[in-house]
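## Example record

The block below lists the input lines for one assembly entry, exactly as stored, with component labels intact.
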Amino acid sequence: MAQVASLTLLHNDDARPIIEAILADNPGVRVLDMPGCVKLDRDMELVVNRASVEERLGRTWDPQEIHLVLVSMAGNLDEDDDRFLVGWKH
Amino acid sequence: MAVKKLGLKQRYAHMTRGLDWETTYQPMDKVFPYDKFEGIKIKDWSAWEDPFRLTMDAYWKFQAEKERKLYAVLDAFAQSNGQTKISDGRYVNALKLFLTGVSPLEYQAHRGFAWAGRHLRGVGPRVASQMQSLDELRHFQTQAHTISQYNKYFDGIAEFRHMHDRVWYLSVPKSFFDDARSAGPFEYMIAVGFSFEYVLTNLLFVPFMSGAAYNGDMSTVTFGFSAQSDESRHMTLGIEVIKFLLEQHPDNLPIVQKWVDKWFWRGHKVLGLVGMMMDYMLPKKVMSWREAWDIYFVEAGGSLFQDLARYGLRPPKYSDVATAEADHVSHQIWATFYQYCHAAAFHTWIPDREHMDWLSEKYPTTFDKYYRPRWEMWAEMEKQGKRFYNMALPQLCQTCQVPMLYTEPGNPETICFRHSKFKGDTYHFCSDGCKDVFDGEPEKYVQAWLPVHQIYQGACGGPTVPDVLAYYRMNVGADNMDYVGSPDEKLWMSWQAGAVKAAE
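Predicted structure tokens for the full assembly:
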């Protein structure tokens, strides 16, 4: 069974550019819509790129701002100034 | 030339490393007296990696922002009388169970992480534990604040703190945390940080809070997701703890495996209450307990344990049993509360036809065969004026404290009983998993405060049901019994009638 990397985000205005960036940057991502939140799943790895979010948001964005809208996650986390990544690769 | 800014990883290292010191007035083993007796071996505390790299100033900034948003919603909810706009008055009973059963656990987690943070020798886990301790206190406070709005109108809420320490079914979640907090600091981290936060907490917060959103409870969904946004950090701490322990020394593996097995099973038993909330108590449903279990345990847990297999760790013992039980637990527990609603601080009801059809669809192999006939029989008895109450006090499992209501694996027509002998006494269990936990540490579990035993020993106000309910501070006739005919229902109907009148 493929291991699933996952991020669940609030379904609100603050999270929308992040959700859109994830959809654009992660081919094969699967979307589970729930009331109030959205779960994004992908085999092995899921990434949020700062540049993609900033492009949609129209301002600078610190990947740590994801804390304000993050509901849940699955995968080992790797975070730096340019991206926020969850995955099972080593 | 502009000076290049430090990257996040370097910045975090500078902000957090080298802050600790070796004590000289007292030996380190006296300053940290609890981090060796469990047998865990740590060679290098500095190998601890905190993947979130959140510094204290960033932590305060984000938490303050979350609080501002939450309290703006709570104000708006109160000002707009949001409690009148939920899907149905029945919904509030899920909140009652949440506040009496879960919110006090947040407070216990606050205390537990404060203690673990104090007693772990490494600076990395201490900082993370401190943050989590503060988070958990915030969760308790925001939950009490949020639900206080409902307390102005609905019964069964006001005495939540008193009830948590006394009422029979609340000893199930309470004993889970009492067990974790009376363990050593490493076991506590595996119990709460790993097993509960990483493996199981999604099952509580994500589908249930999404359910709150679906049922028009703007305030609860907001505290729920606000709390859950801290939970991602907690999950990361949980997974970091287990990787750190397994990387530090091969001798740690059997100890950690035993804890993973134990705390998965303990958590699974507590979460049966959540299964019941999702399948029976939410008027508008998001997903069934079975579906939630498949997403959050089978799929997410499967990925996790596949990853941890590189350390030799295997999935929790009896996880196959727990997965099979997901087709049964919610039905068996709600049926128990239906029989004992005279002694519960929330209301019960028989699912209506539409609700039962939903259950048939979600539980195609079990609901129509085993559970629908029982509801139809009880509905018929109600119609004849013979509403069924079970007046016998149930036997409780010595480990999880759930009444002996679960059935044998693979045979849902026979109640599951197990027992062990210890120092001449016989102890009873609901499952192989609970028996194993007891057999691993009988000296601990013989001390369990079992509500039914305590009633029989005269420690709960007196020998009769009214005595015990008075001891629970239950407002009889308002807090307990069926939803139909309750003051809650009357209030809800009056709001509905008012809304209809205003629309005319």
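The radius of gyration of chain B is 24 Å. Chain B touches chain A at residues 7-9, 51-54, 58, 62, 65-66, 69, 202, 205-207, 209-214, 221, 225, 228-229, 231-233, 235-236, 239, 286-287, 295, 299-300, 302-304, 306-307, 310 (CB under 8 Å).
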